């Protein structure tokens, strides 16, 4: 019998299917001044034990109830009882978004991965469809509560405390995005002010109006939209520094972990920029930044390894990479039951480090955050180039606006940027040269640069597709 105290009562949530270690204690409130959960500080050996126990549990559960997983594992000749140790995990086939997509095409609309009738589950989502046709996902009350527990951890690590006000710069579409952040904030006791369909102009007016009440506040938005506020505020003559926003909690894209983007946003808002990154498939956030990392120029994110198994593989061969080497993530959500995610090729490109963080958390670090989604990786003349690396260059150069796109042609790429307003056309050539050299210094590859007049590149409000393949 677990001694863990949950947010939802058993009468409310029904019988839980997960394994809940006693160290989770009371999930509904902070464990200490600094940590939301004691789990964040457990010895890594204990976290490994929790991972293994949870992994075996989710595999057994999915095999018994999910036709999708049973089919794939039967084809591979794998049974749950074959998973005895860490080496056995690799025998379970890796699944991709295409496997889920094909399954849903053949068995519309939900496919066959669910473990209880999808119409009876608490949450309905679809993926944002930036790189593939939207896929449908559902999750149970138990899953949702587990997501809230993880999200609260991240928000608390960002410095957000009960009683703060959260400005939610998003339009509440049917993908998970900030919905989970919303629920976590509410359960922590923060007031939420949603943007919804308001125009950016009306939205900034609303934030300004409420800023006079003196409540500590934070903004939850994608890096693209956080950036969009800066441009709009300039146009409207609003000083973002006066809005009493202390923390920028960003999700959906790499942002706070790109040093020049972080610096740019922190200067504009007089706030600390933070990451909280997950996906629809993982439900809860896989990683989050802490206050100590936010002081670093090159920030890293803690990985929630008690709730996720994160493996790194070569995206072409799907073979594991060596310790300390970069790779694409294969993620198992250990506490998601409605539509389980087991050895899913999420494809975030990262390096895992076990170096100690000054904050005292033992959860390892994704070094420098997510570098790219593997779909966004560009290979030019045999060199891997991440969009975040180009972004870091573009945003570190005086005279260039933060907007950029990368047009990839077969053997080369053109970086399209904009000059800032007031820069003379005759100086574009000089800017182009500075950027070209900066990128060459960082990648040893020479890319073509195209400097455009201000406002040439389209502005997005949610996520920006940076790479255009031709
Ligand atoms: Zn830390």
TrEMBL record:
Cite the source lineage: Bacteria, Pseudomonadati, Thermodesulfobacteriota, Desulfobacteria, Desulfobacterales
Q: EC annotation?
A: 6.2.1.30
Keywords annotated in UniProt: Ligase
> Key word Ligase present in the record?
yes
Q: Does the keyword Ligase apply?
A: yes
Q: Which InterPro entries match?
A: AMP-bd_C_sf (IPR045851), AMP-dep_Lig_C (IPR028154), ANL_N_sf (IPR042099)
- What's the protein here called? Putative Phenylacetate-coenzyme A ligase
Give start and end of each AMP-dependent ligase C-terminal domain: 382-468
Q: Which Pfam families match?
A: AMP-binding_C_2 (PF14535)
The entry lists its GO molecular-function terms as: phenylacetate-CoA ligase activity
Among SUPFAM superfamilies, the record links this protein to: Acetyl-CoA synthetase-like
């Amino acid at each position: 019998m677990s001694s863990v105290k949950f947010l939802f009562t058993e009468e409310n949530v029904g019988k839980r299917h997960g394994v809940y270690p006693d160290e989770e204690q009371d999930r509904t409130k902070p464990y200490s001044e600094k940590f939301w959960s004691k789990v964040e500080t457990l010895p890594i050996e204990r976290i490994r034990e929790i991972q293994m126990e949870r992994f075996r549990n989710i595999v057994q559960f999915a095999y018994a109830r999910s036709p999708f997983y049973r089919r794939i594992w039967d084809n591979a000749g794998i049974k749950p009882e074959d998973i005895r140790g860490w080496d056995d995990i690799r025998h379970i086939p890796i699944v991709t978004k295409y496997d889920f997509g094909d399954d849903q095409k053949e068995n519309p609309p939900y496919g066959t991965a669910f473990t209880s009738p999808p119409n009876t589950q608490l949450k309905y989502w679809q993926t944002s469809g930036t790189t593939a046709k939207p896929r449908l996902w559902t999750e149970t009350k138990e899953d949702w509560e587990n997501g809230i527990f993880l999200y609260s951890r991240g928000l608390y690590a960002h410095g957000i405390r009960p009683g703060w006000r959260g400005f939610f710069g998003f339009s509440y579409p049917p993908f998970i995005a900030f919905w989970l952040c919303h629920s976590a904030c509410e359960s922590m006791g923060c007031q939420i002010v949603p943007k919804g369909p308001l125009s950016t102009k009306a939205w900034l007016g609303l934030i300004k109006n409420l800023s006079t009440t003196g409540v500590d506040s934070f903004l939850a938005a994608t890096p693209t939209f956080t950036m969009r506020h800066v441009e709009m505020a300039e146009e409207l003559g609003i000083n973002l520094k006066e809005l009493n926003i202390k923390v920028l909690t960003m999700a959906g894209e790499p942002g706070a972990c790109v040093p020049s983007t972080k610096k740019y946003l922190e200067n504009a808002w007089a706030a600390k920029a933070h990451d909280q990154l997950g996906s629809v498939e993982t439900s809860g956030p896989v990683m989050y930044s802490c206050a100590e990392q936010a002081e670093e120029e090159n920030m890293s994110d803690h990985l929630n390894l008690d709730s996720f198994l994160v493996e790194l593989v070569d995206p072409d061969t799907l073979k594991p990479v060596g310790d300390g080497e970069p790779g694409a993530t294969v993620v198992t959500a250990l506490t998601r039951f409605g539509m389980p995610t087991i050895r899913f090729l999420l494809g975030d490109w990262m390096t895992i480090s076990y170096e100690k963080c000054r904050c005292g958390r033992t959860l390892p670090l994704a070094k420098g955050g997510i570098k790219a989604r593997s779909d966004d990786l560009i290979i030019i003349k045999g060199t891997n180039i991440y969009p975040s690396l180009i972004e870091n260059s573009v945003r570190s150069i005086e005279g260039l606006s933060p907007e950029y796109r990368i047009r990839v042609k077969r053997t080369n790429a053109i970086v399209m940027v904009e000059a800032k307003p007031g820069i003379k056309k005759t100086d574009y050539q000089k800017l182009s040269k500075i950027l070209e050299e900066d990128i060459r210094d960082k990648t040893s590859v020479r890319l073509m640069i195209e400097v455009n007049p201000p406002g040439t590149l389209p502005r997005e409000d949610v996520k920006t597709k940076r790479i255009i393949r031709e």
